[in-house]
Amino acid sequence: MSEPFSVRITVRGYETDVQGHLNQSVYINYAEHARWSLLQAAGITQARLIGTGVGPVALETTIRYKSELLAGDEVDVTCSFAWGGGKTFRIEQTIRKTDGTVAAELTAVGGLLDLKERRMVANPQDHFKELASDPSLFGL
Fold this sequence. Notes:
By secondary structure, this protein is of the alpha+beta class.
């Protein structure tokens, strides 16, 4: 199995809390950045996705904090999709310092919303596969 998609991010000072740690909400921003970066690398832009009448939705996100992140730390944020059939999919993500220390693990459940019908699309992997120039980035 190949390595999951990954993007490097440097923790910025303004993203930290009063203790100097990366603020909890920023972990979700980093995860979201990695997701959109994967879509872009696979050939799917926001405009193209919305142009097909669907938009991604987050249904659940779980974060497990493992090690603190401080301003100036560089991290790699991975992103891999898991398809189980039905209307939803899982996204597994790890935020890891460059020394290999795991800072956080995120698991998300998402789907694609039909923007006209306001209902979840059945088999979202088919939609991603059709749109992507490189569906292998989605594990398809």
